[in-house]
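Progress narrative, Year 2. Work on EAL domain-containing protein from Wenzhouxiangella sediminis advanced from sequence curation to structure prediction during this period.
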Amino acid sequence: MTQRFYLESSGKDSNLPRHVHLDEFPATVGRHPECVIQLSVERLSRMHARFELDGDVLLIRDLGSTNGTFVNHARVSAPTRLQVGDVLHLADHEFRLMADAGAGESGGSGTGEETVVGMAALPRDFPLHMPAFFELLENRQVTGYGQPIVTAGGELHALELLGRSENPDLDEGPGQLFALAAALDTEVRLSRMLRRRAFAQASEAGLTLPLFFNNHPTECEDMVALLDELHELRSHHPDLNLVFEVHETAVTDLGAMAEVKEELARMGIALAYDDFGAGQARLLELAEVPPDYLKFDMGLIRDMSTSDSPRYRLLAELNRMIAGMGIKTLIEGVEDPVTADLCREIGIDYMQGFLFGRPRPLADYHQSENESAP
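Result:
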């Protein structure tokens, strides 16, 4: 018995046919007129994907599409075997792979368990926010926020640059954005977009105080490309007082990190090690490639209620050692006055947390950057 495959669309896009028959192999799908399956819809690449038949096995291959091909919510990076009933996404356009018996075959159970006819509505969890996310990427619908970093005395010292969505359908914060980006393998693209927007808005606001900014861990896998981007941004924003945060887990190659520090110094960008203490506290890196700032992970102050607590003694000893190396220290996640007072006793230079202010749009700091934090 021969199966005839077809794609059943979700019906959410009126520009897509309800059924797309796969009668010819290989079958290329995309917007290009030469595609066997030409679909003139947004976010689909000109040559998006190709269906191939290897004996009785149906495969799908992504053709380097911009917005991805997915099988059962997993992005396709190599030829992937398809089963009847699989959910496919070409960008955010949703289909289910279906099959019916070939001509001349009778119906009934002889079609086998893999034949699926008249299935229920397609799952909505995965693609629910995908159209909005593609719209965000294409139209750069992000904006810059800043969270206060204060001195031990409570005066505003710096801001950590953050980003938020301007798309009304994506309002759950950066975690939601990066979860969607991870599904599409676009974390670097999103991270760069957020950084560029924050830098531009900080320049527009005329901010002169230190601006801490970070990067997605994936970007550290190609530090040359990251530094090239920072060179470009620095050329556009020469007056910004920038501090580049590197997560401690990224500081693994001392020689490479020393070169990064030198390159940042040539650009007039300070260096901070972020989340120190969250994993292995790499003390050798501090000695060999000391940063300008070190940000302690907020986990170090969790449940630190008195100066007799083990966490207090640990943080005090770490701070004494690091401050002795001439490195400025900063603690994140300070949410109550008791913790703030204990951090002052320890001698930590700067603090950050909801006690001193939640993230706000960068434009809000235009008039208040030299005032005390709220």
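The two ends are 73 Å apart (CA to CA). Residues 4-100 form a domain with the Tumour Suppressor Smad4 fold (CATH 2.60.200.20).
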